[in-house]
Amino acid sequence: MDAGKYRRQFILPPERCMDWAEQSALTRAPVWCSVDLRDGNQALVEPMDLNTKLEFFRLLVEIGFREIEVGFPAASDTEFEFIRALIEGDLVPSDVTLQVLTQAREHIIRRTFEAIEGAENVIVHVYNSTSVAQREQVFAKSKGEILRIAEDGARLLRELTERAGAGYRFEYSPESFTGTEPEYALEVVDAVLDIWKPTAERKAVVNLPATVENAMPHVYAQQVEYLHKHLKYRENVVLSLHPHNDRGCGVAAAEFGLLAGADRVEGTLFGNGERTGNCDLVTLAMNLYSQGVDPGLDFSNMPSIAARYRKFTGMEISPRQPYAGELVFAAFSGSHQDAIAKGMRYRAERETEDWTVPYLPIDPRDVGREYDSDVIRINSQSGKGGVGYVLERAYGLKLPARLRECMSAIAKHVSDEEHRELRAEDLYRLFETHFLLPRGKFFVGEVHYRQENGITASVEIVEGEKRTVVTAEGNGRLDAVSNALKAHFGIDFTLVGYEQHALSDGSQARAISYVGAAMDGRTDWGAGIHSDIIRASVSALVCALNNLFATRE
């Protein structure tokens, strides 16, 4: 590798443009323009056919986009036919504006106007390259010659619109803006605006593309701020951004550009586009949402949007894609799981609407995700907090802290041995097997109690085919049963934990009991479920003792 052959390709403005850096946050959403059907489509290995583009258009409208770049009509018959299908089929809602792209070349502009004939709300987007590299290497033209290309294109747009008697709006992009001298970019843009003479009723869009991202985001912000401060007709101009993601900073560049005075952003769902892609509008919009700003786009059913996107484009979405990836809310780490569980409990106990849960920048439910399957994920790295949280969320089990530790150890062992993640149903099966289902050396059948200076219990102990009734006294029912079991087996154990709670409401409500027992320096647990809380407690004690007997043997 030879870094010496690379040099800085961006040019800073001739004056300080750092007002954007004094702001701490965005306070309103920009105007959104989806370019999925043009920039996104041209970057696909297999571009979308007509029907697929129509379906994608409907999705974009559903999400809330009101400006949609639908194609480059002169590029292919499919592009042209798609635009005609939208217009002739009356498929464009009255509040949606179509945007079409054209180079500043006469025959391409004329073909574009043929495609949009009969449409009402249209932005005609014309561009030509202005950067140093493009001027010198591609076109071999002077600044004056490049300026005339832009002026000729702008003039033809105006003439054809007037001839058609249409109310089309215009957009101009100095392509490769970030590699253009800011003063020269301003000169070209002002010349175009002098031809269009935008008004408050018919604003022009000036779009500033980072066609290839060649600098840190703060450089783009300075370049944008320079034009924002010096543009002619600024009050009648919608200043737009079109960042690409070559350095992986497309979203950051858009955010900084908006702080610098821009009003609008062009981009794609999930950042699809040439090379490393366009600005990801999903991430940008959800970043606003996470700061309490309504983006005006609806991503409340993110799994459905992602599935349709994959179907239409053939592209995949990374499991770590912000807000949309399969694993973006997942916590496998034990400490993270514990923090999330406590944060959720804290929020519920205080009945607060504010979202401050550790490790979760937004509420997963806001984008159609579920806590049980998407947030706390159990593998060999997980801890007791996560295991306990999943069992409580999915099955209503509130395990005592020491039982959570035992359950966590079992889950870790299974996940490690089987090299897989454990779902809620897997955890419950493990809980049943180890702590709930009758198994082992013995079980207790009928128990009869009578109260005489305490509690006397007659306990039926079943060992295989053998049934023995043992009577013992205690301070309470469970204590009396414990004393009967001690006498029968000739053992001494101590109850180290006893908790219970309801599992359901109503007259047929069931309860669960958890009992911990210690013997010979070892401790184990059992659980029992029954409509009678005493019966549930006896079952839990039996499971705990059977577990202790199993380790003893």
What is the strand and helix layout of this fold?
Elements: E1 31-34, H1 36-42, H2 50-63, E2 67-71, H3 77-88, E3 97-103, H4 106-115, E4 122-129, H5 132-139, H6 143-164, E5 169-175, H7 182-196, E6 204-210, H8 217-230, E7 237-243, H9 250-259, E8 264-267, H10 281-290, H11 302-313, H12 334-350, H13 371-374, H14 384-395, H15 401-418, H16 424-436, E9 443-451, E10 455-463, E11 466-474, H17 477-489, E12 494-502, E13 511-519, E14 522-530, H18 533-552
Helix pairs in contact: 2-3, 2-11, 4-6, 6-7, 7-8, 8-9, 12-14, 14-15, 14-16, 17-18
What brief labels describe this structure?
eight-stranded parallel barrel; single chain; three-stranded antiparallel sheet; alpha/beta; 553 residues; 14 strands; Double Stranded RNA Binding Domain; TIM Barrel
Helix tally?
18
Q: Give the structural class.
A: alpha/beta
Largest sheet: 8 strands, parallel, barrel
Query: Which term fits the overall shape?
Result: elongated
Number of E-state strands: 14
CATH architecture level-2 label of the largest domain = Alpha-Beta Barrel
What is the CA–CA distance across the termini?
A: 65 Å
The share of residues in helices is: 40-55%
CATH superfamily heading of the largest domain? Aldolase class I
User: What percentage of amino acids are in beta strands?
Assistant: 15-25%
CATH fold description of the largest domain: TIM Barrel
Strand arrangement, major sheet: 1-2-3-4-5-6-7-8
